[in-house]
Amino acid sequence: MPFVKLNKDGDIIGLSEQPGHGTGEELPADDPEVIAFLEAARNQLSSSDAETIRVIEDLVDVLIEKKVLLLTDLPQPAQQKLMERQRMRSELGVLGNVMVDEEDIL
């Protein structure tokens, strides 16, 4: 059962397996508030993952363009994934303004 850290309004702002570090009461793992907190955290991580993937993908493109890295330096599965993403982004780019990401770039 996790120990919860609450803000002044009584909302969960953190979980811990052990008491301390500002944690208070212990709640069951299936408590609706604990579940909601964990789902929100998973959603934030998922969104961050997608954004980070985009940054890494762009970084690899720049390194290849500047000849700091060769695509063939990467393992074959990584090469295939990067080429597939490039193909998908290229095809989506043809759609123009119909489909753009959060920063309005493809």
Short description:
With 106 residues, the chain is mainly alpha-helical.
Tell me what the structure shows.
The chain is mainly alpha-helical. The protein folds into two domains: 1-56; 70-106. 49% of the residues lie in helices and 8% in strands. The chain contains two helices and two strands, in the order ββαα. The protein has helices at 32-65, 76-93, and strands at residues 3-6, 12-16. The chain has a two-stranded antiparallel sheet. Strand 1 (3-6) and strand 2 form a beta hairpin. It is elongated and about 55 Å long. The chain starts with a strand and ends in a 13-residue tail after the last helix. The mean pLDDT is 86.
Helix and strand layout, with pairings?
Elements: E1 3-6, E2 12-16, H1 32-65, H2 76-93
Antiparallel strand pairs: 1-2
Could you name the ranges where pLDDT drops below 50 across 5 or more consecutive residues? none
Order of helices and strands: EEHH
Number of helices: 2
Main beta sheet, described? 2 strands, antiparallel
Shape: elongated
Instruction: Work out the number of β strands.
Output: 2
Task: Please identify the structural class as seen in this structure.
Answer: mainly alpha
Question: What percent of the residues sit in helical stretches (DSSP H or I)?
Answer: 40-55%
Mean pLDDT: 86
